[in-house]
Amino acid sequence: MATSTEKGKGRAIEDTFDEFQQTGNAFWDEALKHKTFISATVGSLCSTFLGFPLDSLKSRMQATRGSSPRIHQLATEVFREEGIRGFWRGALIPLLSISVVRTTSFSIYTGTKNELARKNILATSSLRDIWVTSFISGCTSGASISICSTPFELIKVRRQLEVMISQEMGIIDPKPMTTRQSVQAIVSNRGWAGMYTGFGPHFIRDTLGTGLYFAEYDALRSLFGRLPSGEQGDVPSWLPITPSLVPFFCGSVAGVSSWALIYPVDAIKTRMQKRALSNKSYRGIWETFGRIAKGPDSLHPQPMSKGFMQLYRGLGVSAARSCLTHGLLWFVIDNVSSIIDRGSLSPMSSQLKSQEGFKLSPNSPATPLQSQTVRRRSRSRSDVGPDAKEAVDLATQSKENVFLFVPNLIGYSRIILAGISLWVMPNHPKLFTALYFLSSILDVADGHAARALKQTSKFGAVLDMVTDRSATACLLAHLAGEYPAYALLFQFLIALDFSSHYMHMYSSLATGSTSHKLVTADVSRILWLYYNDTRTLFVFCFANETFFVALYLIGSGPEWRTIGLSSHAFSSLLSSIGLSEIVPKLAVGWLDLVLGKLSLPMIVALLCFPICVGKQIINVVQFWKASKILVGIDLSERAAARQLEQNRSK
Predict the structure, then answer these.
(1) Out of 206, 266, 468, 522, which one is annotated catalytic?
(2) Are 168 and 183 a contacting pair, CB within 8 Å?
(3) Disordered: where is this region (predicted)?
(4) In CATH, which of 1.10.357, 1.20.120, 2.60.40, 3.90.400 is domain 399-564+599-632?
């Protein structure tokens, strides 16, 4: 039978994890059931939004008659006539529809592959069978999806080429149409059947393109170490990338190569749709191909070689878009799927909970898992370690000097570098930035050294946290003076940073944890993902510090507010590394247009700001969870004290 003290501890644990039990397991179980939908939706939204400006420029280049315009000239013209919104004109429909289309495409593709495997058709693990089955499944998916996606693609083209179509129709000052007005214009001119204008080349493009795309991606993943379980194994030694970047690399290569092969079909489709939307007589696939090959002047046809080059107009910007969007798509899908898998397999998942049991029954003995949980979170102070006097004697008399552990020596150098950087902060921005970031980078080095040399220590962990918190607080204090209007905000961030980490550290020690980073999923899913994935931890911490340093540089003087990315400097850099023939038209034009009036610190600050906000949210969660843990310990100790008092009174 369990004692009254054990009952009190069990009730305290149940109260602490009640919220997680009610919502956490159900959430991750549902996420696992719909993993394909969730990962494909998130990946599609991210990749579509970021790549849409390039897709818009590609469509405009394909629809332009005569000589091919330079990408930076076209981007400048779009910005001058339509503003920054012109690059995302017509993005709403693709953002809303492409997630559904791609999720359905993935489902059809996966279902076809499973059906072939069930019938034992090309079911070996050879590279040939992987390529053929993926190609067949991809073609099936592309052909099915093209039936539904053609109207959405037509609306997107109508919105992207709105200004050009208006000029073709003789409208001098066209008013921008909404998505609904674009649909009404198409239906009023060509009827509901007009929504399938260009369906022929669209069907060919999606069928062949999707087949090649999936076949190349699966073949590359298999070649680069994907295990039969679907997880990424060891990367071949000749491939100089980390395993986490394999999905991005394979997605980029598959997207660019498959798109390049079917690009002429897409060019024909865009020309056909533009002509039809301009209320001109319809031209079929072969007639459109002949017009492109011979040129706009039928009396003086151009050489066929030049005509074929017209079919690849805009391929550079399209290749850049495909590299970005498809690489990002698979990277996000792979990482979101991994997060869902880790969540569903966490120690507190419903499956494990049902097998081992979690709640302490007052009338039954604790299981091993429950006893371990109680011991970890509710053991007495005497179980944690020596008292203060014993600890001081050990530190003084022991031959093993923890103060001289290599990770701690690195920590001391971090303190010195941070101190020097703060000393030169008022007058030497460049030196401050270099020293401050060097101190931050050493924060990663001391952790690796501690694990490699088996020299982890509580002193090193606290020293590391104190150094981080102190350096950040000093930087924020300087920003409070640099930006007086936001002084209260920076003071709040200092208080939040210190209080959340102190509360978290104290609650970890109070529960007997060996490290503040050993957060389990049953305590907080957010903190578990934050502390247990070193990449996530590094990105949030580094981007958070980078944002504050960028604010410091912006306010440090006029010379930093004018340092930007000039098109000439970027072009010279690309020429020096041999990419001047591929990238400069896109990169120079884009940077000159969008980033021309922003300094480099401003650009860095804009990129890091969302992550900095996320870091502050994590601090709030950390503060709240630590508070609940300490309150739970208080309640448990108070219940034990009352029980002891009752026993004494008897």
Answers:
(1) 468
(2) no
(3) 355-388
(4) 1.20.120
